Amino acid sequence: METAVELAPEAYPCRWDDCAKLYTDPELLYLHLTTDHVGRKATRNLCLKCHWADCSVETVKRDHITSHLRVHIPLKPHHCMYCNKTFKRPQDLKKHEKTHTEEEIQQALATQHYLQPSPTGLQPLTPPRYPQSDKSLTPNHINQHSPSGYPISPPQSTYSEGMPIKK
């Protein structure tokens, strides 16, 4: 006899103790885990121990258990802006980004690599970070000029239009 998992290879089963729900998307499975199994202190159903298959991780904070749950599901929403690798947790992405050389970072910024769509079609969840060593690349230090070379004026307020000016 075939099980539901064998019939639907795209199905993601919940392997929490005494739960047999199937999901078609890893994000839906993660939402189920955080809502139905981890819960919240405010609703008096907070569980800080992982009951996924043979896992026995215990945490002291809800954020820690929800972060831990990502190791059990194939969901990688955090994208490296320099090489398009994906990660399950933001701290893993941050650690990975430190492995890129200054040259790779400068090249990525120069080609605006972080603005190109990733292979998954998802945009980065965090805004691009600029290297601390070259302040000339940060948005606050960019000389904003129009194509003709003249500085761009700041946007005008619509609140003052039609209002008499007090002298």
TrEMBL record:
Residues annotated as domain C2H2-type: 12-42, 48-77, 78-105
Annotated region (Disordered), positions in chain: 116-167
Keyword Repeat: yes
GO biological process: positive regulation of transcription by RNA polymerase II
Entry-linked Gene3D superfamilies: Classic Zinc Finger
Keyword Zinc-finger: yes
Annotated compartments: Nucleus
InterPro entries attached to this UniProt entry: pacC/RIM101 (IPR050806), Znf_C2H2_sf (IPR036236), Znf_C2H2_type (IPR013087)
Superkingdom, taxonomy of origin: Eukaryota
Pfam (any one): zf-C2H2
SMART domains registered for this protein in UniProt: ZnF_C2H2
Molecular function as annotated in GO: zinc ion binding
Segments of skewed composition (Polar residues): 133-147
Gene Ontology cellular component terms for the protein in this record: nucleus
Keyword vocabulary terms for this entry: Metal-binding, Nucleus, Repeat, Repressor, Zinc, Zinc-finger
Family stated for the protein in its record: Belongs to the pacC/RIM101 family.
Protein name (Swiss-Prot/TrEMBL): C2H2-type domain-containing protein
